[in-house]
């Protein structure tokens, strides 16, 4: 399976996917850490993907999503954005609604 096929399977197979550097327990960059913290605060049940462990996936994801940086948050197969967008959505209260709706549909 190609990296693009794996990305597609991940984002279509899980309601909330965060492609990040490191893991939620040990983020390897400040942006990934801030995105994880915002998602934790809204009780998101994320499927984390450590792009540092998969160079092919890390190289293909920006082409797949048309988003150049990490982290990248996908909800219900759709790119939401990176750290700044995730934190802005958290600050506005929208992140909680988006995540809750996605997780409700997944139950």
Automatic annotation (TrEMBL):
InterPro entries in alphabetical order: Glutaredoxin, GRX_PICOT-like, Monothiol_GRX, Monothiol_GRX-rel, Thioredoxin-like_sf
Cited NCBIfam families: Grx4 family monothiol glutaredoxin (TIGR00365)
Entry binding sites for [2Fe-2S] cluster: 29
Signal peptide segment: none
Highest taxon of source: Bacteria
Domain Glutaredoxin: 16-80
GO molecular function: 2 iron, 2 sulfur cluster binding; disulfide oxidoreductase activity; metal ion binding
Protein's UniProt name: Glutaredoxin
Keywords: 2Fe-2S, Iron, Iron-sulfur, Metal-binding, Redox-active center
Family the UniProt entry places it in: Belongs to the glutaredoxin family. Monothiol subfamily.
Pfam families associated with the record: Glutaredoxin
Record CDD domains: GRX_PICOT_like
Originating species: Alkalisalibacterium limincola
Keyword Lipid biosynthesis: no
Binding site for glutathione: 21, 58, 70, 83-84
PANTHER family from the UniProt entry: GLUTAREDOXIN FAMILY MEMBER, MONOTHIOL GLUTAREDOXIN-S14, CHLOROPLASTIC
């Amino acid at each position: 399976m190609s990296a693009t096929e794996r990305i597609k399977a991940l984002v279509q197979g899980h309601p909330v996917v965060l492609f990040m550097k490191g893991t939620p327990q040990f983020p390897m960059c400040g942006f990934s850490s801030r995105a994880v913290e915002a998602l934790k605060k809204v009780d998101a049940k994320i499927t984390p993907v450590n792009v540092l462990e998969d160079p092919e996936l890390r190289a293909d994801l920006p082409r797949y999503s048309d988003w150049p940086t990490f982290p990248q948050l996908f909800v219900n197969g759709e790119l939401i954005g990176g750290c700044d967008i995730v934190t802005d959505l958290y600050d506005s209260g929208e992140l909680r609604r988006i995540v809750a709706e996605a997780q409700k549909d997944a139950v």
